[in-house]
User: Fold this.
Amino acid sequence: MRALVVDDSRAMRMILARVLRENGFEVLEAGDGQEALAVLAGAELPDVALVDWNMPVMNGLDFVEAVRREPAYEAMHLLMVTTESEATQVVRAIEAGAEEYLFKPFTPEAVLDKLAMVGLSVGA
Amino acid sequence: MALAQTDFAFISDLVRKHSAIVLEPGKEYLVESRLSSLAQREVQGDISTLVARLQQDRSGRLVTRVVDAMTTNETLFFRDGHPFDALRRHVLPELLAARSATRRLELWCGASSSGQEPYSIAMVLSEELKKHPGWTADVLATDINEEMLARTREGLYSQLEVNRGMPIAALMKHFEQQGRQWQAKPELRAMISTRPLNLATPFPRIGPFDVVFLRNVLIYFDPEVKRAVLDRVRTVLRPDGYLFLGGSETTLTIDGSWERVNLGPSTAYRPRKDNT
Assistant:
C-alpha cells in the first residue's frame, strides 16, 4: 500500500512516515498542498493521503477540495491529521471530502485505527 | 484515593523498562484503572501496597502481571469493531422483536474502566432506537474503581482519547466540544448509569440484562474465578440474552453451560437452554 503524507513540518512527516513504513506502506511526502498535487500528477495514485490543515502555499482544506474535484483521484482515501480541532472546522473538512480526522497529538495506534476506518487494515 | 506521585513514577519506570511504553505525567488515571483491581486481587491492597510488593518481587511474576495489565488491557472506543456491528446488525433486531411488549432494553458493561465501551454501546443504541420510537435502553456501566465511574458519568474525553477508535462522524454526532476536550451529549450520558462492582465477589442486585459486555477482563482471572464470574453473569442475563467477551476470551473451556453463537465475524455466548 502507498501513502502520501502532506505536512509542512518535516518532523511530523518523519513521525507519520515511520508509523506507515513500519506497517508496510510505501510513503511519499509533500510539504504543502501544491507540492502534494504535483506528487500525485507524477506518481501512481496512493491508497491514502494524510493531510495537515495549516500549511503555506496551499493548505490542507484546499488540497482536499482539489483532490475531490479530480475524478482520477477518486479512489484515494483522505485523512486529515491536524491540530485544528474546532468542531466547525472538522465539519468543513468532512464536507470537503475528508473521510476521517485525526487530532494532533496522536499515538501510532490511533493512526492505524483511522486507516482501518477508511478500509486500510494493516493487520494486528 | 489519588495515586501517589512516587508510586506513579515507580510504575511508569517499570513499564518503560519492560515494555518500552512510556506513561507520561497525566496518565495517572490509566495506572489506577489498570492496576486497582489487580492490586486488590494480588496483594489484597491498593496500588501503594502493590508497589511495595513489586520492589521485592524476585520471581518477576508480579512484575509481569503489572506490565501486562498496563499494556494489554487498553480501553478505546469501539474496540475490535465487530462486536458493535454484531450488536447493531444481529442482536438488536432480534431483541426489538422479542421485547416488543416492554419496548425496553437493559444492557450491562462490566469492567467499564473510563467509559469508552459503555459509550460505544450507547452510541449504537441511540442510532438504532431512533428508528424505533417509543423504545428506551439503559446501559449499566460497572467498575471496581469509583474514579473511573465518575469519569464515565462525566463522559469527558481528551483528543488523544477520542482519536482512539472513534469515527469522526460518531464524534460529531454524539459529542460536544468543551475546549480541547469532548463530552458525550446529555442524551447519551442519560442512557448510562454507573455502579461500583467487583466481578470477583458476589454481585449486588442487578439485572436482568438483555446483553452483557464483559470484554478483556476474564483474562486477568484464574480459572476458578473465571468460572465463578461466568456463573454469576448467567444469573443476571436473560435466557435469550447475549454475552460478549474479548477477542482472546471464551466460555467454552471454562464453563459448559454456555453456547457459542457466531454473529458475522463476531462471537457471542448464550446460556445453554438445557442448563437454565
